[in-house]
Each structure stands twice: as structure tokens, then as C-alpha cells.
Amino acid sequence: PLFSQNARLVYLGTDIFRFSNAYRGEPVVIVVDAVYSKRHAAGAIIHFTDEEVFSELTDVATDAHMLGVGEGLKVLRKVMPRFPDELHFIGVSCKQFGHGEMSHEVKQGIEKAVALVHDLTD
């Protein structure tokens, strides 16, 4: 199987606020997304947990997202009646977004991100 039987995979698209409708009270939630970072090479994996998600993901995206993932999760944490006890953010660093082929580095980064999700859900 793609992931552990203890896990549920939900595609949220580019709207982090869909999480409020998808969340079913799971104690652990892992959010995976592409990120643009000048500090990390293409394909690098960024992994934040719990409060790091809110302190480290401070950029407000200006294109596909209304808010950045971190800012959106901050809002949701305040307004949702239940929020996960444990939160992980896994980002794959990308240098450009748009249509076309993924770079070899980003493809490798995605494989590493999937492996990390496996480790966290087993």
C-alpha cells in the first residue's frame, strides 16, 4: 500500500482551509507541500513539527495560495473546535513553480518526503 493502514490521505489542493472540513479528529496530521526557499537547494526536505510549523512557516504566499500554509494553519488552530495533538509539515524545496517537468532534484525530494511520511505513520 502507498501508506500505512493507520493513515488517511487527503488532497487539499492549494487551499489549506479545506483542512477544516477534512479533519476527523486524528491525533497526528502531516501536511506535505512544495515550498520556495532561498536557504534550501531544490529537492531539499524541510520538516517542522508542532510549534515549529507556526514559528518557521511565516511567508505569506502571493500566487496559488491565499495565505501561506503556516499562516492558514494558525488561523485554523484558533477557529477549529478540534485540532491535532501532533502536527508535522514536510516541504519539498522548489526553485520555480508552473507547468512543465519537475527537475530531477525535486523528484528525488518527493521520494524522500514520501519515505518520511512512511516513517512517521508506521
How would you sum up this structure in a few lines?
This protein has 122 residues and is of the alpha+beta class.
- Estimate the strand proportion: 15-25%
The count of helical stretches stands at: 4
User: Which percent range fits the helix content?
Assistant: 25-40%
Structural class: alpha+beta
Distance between the termini: 12 Å
Mean pLDDT across every amino acid position: 87
Largest sheet: 3 strands, mixed
Strand order of the largest sheet: 1-3-2
According to CATH, what is the class? Answer: Alpha Beta
Total domains = 1
| CA-based gyration radius | 14 Å
- The ordered string of helix (H) and strand (E) elements is HEEHHEH
CATH architecture: 3-Layer(aba) Sandwich
Count of strand segments = 3
CATH topology: Rossmann fold
Unreliable spans = none
Q: What form results from the Cα inertia axes?
A: globular
CATH superfamily: HybD-like
Q: What is the strand and helix layout of this fold?
A:
Elements: H1 19-22, E1 28-36, E2 45-49, H2 51-56, H3 69-79, E3 86-94, H4 104-121
Parallel strand pairs: 1-3
Antiparallel strand pairs: 2-3
Describe the structure.
With 122 residues, the chain is an alpha+beta fold. The chain has a single domain (16-121), classed as Rossmann fold. The protein is 32% helix and 19% strand. The protein contains four helices and three strands, in the order H-E-E-H-H-E-H. The chain has a three-stranded mixed β-sheet. It starts with 18 loop residues before the first helix and ends with a helix.
